[in-house]
């Protein structure tokens, strides 16, 4: 019978250990994504794309979270010309506070407005340090890019924030009710708002929300939150940025976030009391005690926001 020599035995054992270590490492890489908090690699049919954000910052305040950990970051997509909306938000629900941060995200002005508007934005940025701008053209078609820009900024420059809210510039936000909701909300993998469960693509080319079969071949959308305003745990910002590399861009930014959530295996949560959606995406006439039960109300002009805020902020606890 053949018997290995002591030297041959040592070589055999050494090779076996190396093979076992290699198999262990390989299985580990196959079972999970190397980034903490990410799910396993998406379905094999999904091909990873290039980053959708090969753009640079024109205006940035990268150090805003360096010495603080905000409880909540408001991220407001705005057009460069929406100066009045930004001023109204700074004086109302987006006013500076020790544990919140309000930021405005925008692209480049149109060519014919570029010089005067860009100079105004730069001056405004020096004054408030709350404007983040990237060098793509600001337009409705680029809202999805702007949303990804927000997620990238939060994940890169303010990853320690607990929560963030993407909210449009024409929204009334009940920050008092929102804080109460978030105090008992999950700190990871959480997103809430007005959830659309049965959305379908519009195939009429004349529709503002038209999606061709070529761009989006599926007949329905996964659950997504209305883009008027939604709140999420900040860990999702980096995860959505990562998931976006598996999802082709479409011009419907809220649906797009829903597609990224599907890649991540995250389902949005519908926030409501017994009979009322907290995230009211319709226009309502102002009533202090009605608004005290809500988190957002849609379609507020800057002048309307400035008019009702003093009454609401002082009297909402009396309802």
Q: How would you describe this structure to a colleague?
A:
The protein starts with 5 loop residues before the first helix and ends with a helix. The protein has a single domain (57-318), classed as Spore Coat Polysaccharide Biosynthesis Protein SpsA, Chain A, CATH 3.90.550. Mean pLDDT is 86; it is low at 1-41. With 319 residues, the chain is of the alpha/beta class. The radius of gyration is 24 Å and the shape is globular. It has helices at residues 6-31, 83-91, 114-128, 143-157, 175-183, 235-243, 253-264, 288-291, 302-315; strands at residues 57-59, 72-77, 100-108, 131-137, 163-167, 172-173, 191-196, 224-233, 269-270, 279-280, 296-297. The relative contact order is 0.14. Strand 2, helix 2 (83-91) and strand 3 form a beta-alpha-beta unit. Helices cover 35% and strands 17% of the residues.
Structural class: alpha/beta
The count of domains is 1
Span between termini: 93 Å
Q: Major sheet: order of its strands?
A: 1-4-3-2-5-8-7-9
* CATH overall fold name: Spore Coat Polysaccharide Biosynthesis Protein SpsA, Chain A
Q: How many beta strands in the DSSP annotation?
A: 11
Rounded mean pLDDT is 86
């Amino acid at each position: 019978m053949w018997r290995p020599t002591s030297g041959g035995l040592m070589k055999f054992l050494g090779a076996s250990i190396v093979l076992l270590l290699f198999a262990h490492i390989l299985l580990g890489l196959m079972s999970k994504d190397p980034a903490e908090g990410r799910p396993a690699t998406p379905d094999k049919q999904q091909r990873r794309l290039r980053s959708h954000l090969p753009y640079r910052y024109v205006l940035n305040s990268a150090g805003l979270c360096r010495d603080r950990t905000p409880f909540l970051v408001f991220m407001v997509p705005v057009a460069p010309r929406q100066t009045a909306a930004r001023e109204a938000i700074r004086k109302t629900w987006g006013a500076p506070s020790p544990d919140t941060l309000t930021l405005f995200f925008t692209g480049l002005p149109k060519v014919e407005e570029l010089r005067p508007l860009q100079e105004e934005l730069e001056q405004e940025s020096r004054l408030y340090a709350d404007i983040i701008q990237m060098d793509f053209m600001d337009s409705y078609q680029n809202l999805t890019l702007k949303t990804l820009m927000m997620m990238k900024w939060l994940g890169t420059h303010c990853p320690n924030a607990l929560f963030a809210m993407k909210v449009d510039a024409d929204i009334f936000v009940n920050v008092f009710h929102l804080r109460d909701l978030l105090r008992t909300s999950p700190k990871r993998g959480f997103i809430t708002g007005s959830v659309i469960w049965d959305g379908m693509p519009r195939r009429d080319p004349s529709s503002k929300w038209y999606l061709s079969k070529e761009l989006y071949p599926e007949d329905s959308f996964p659950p997504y939150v209305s883009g008027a305003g939604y709140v999420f745990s900040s860990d999702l910002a980096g995860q959505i940025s990562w998931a976006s590399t598996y999802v082709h861009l479409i011009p419907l930014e809220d649906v797009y976030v829903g597609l990224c959530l599907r890649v991540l295996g995250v389902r949005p949560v519908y926030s409501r009391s017994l009979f009322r959606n907290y995230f009211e995406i319709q226009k309502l006439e102002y009533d202090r005690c009605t608004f005290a039960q809500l988190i957002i109300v849609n379609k507020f002009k800057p002048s309307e926001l400035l008019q009702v805020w003093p009454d609401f902020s002082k009297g909402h606890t009396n309802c």
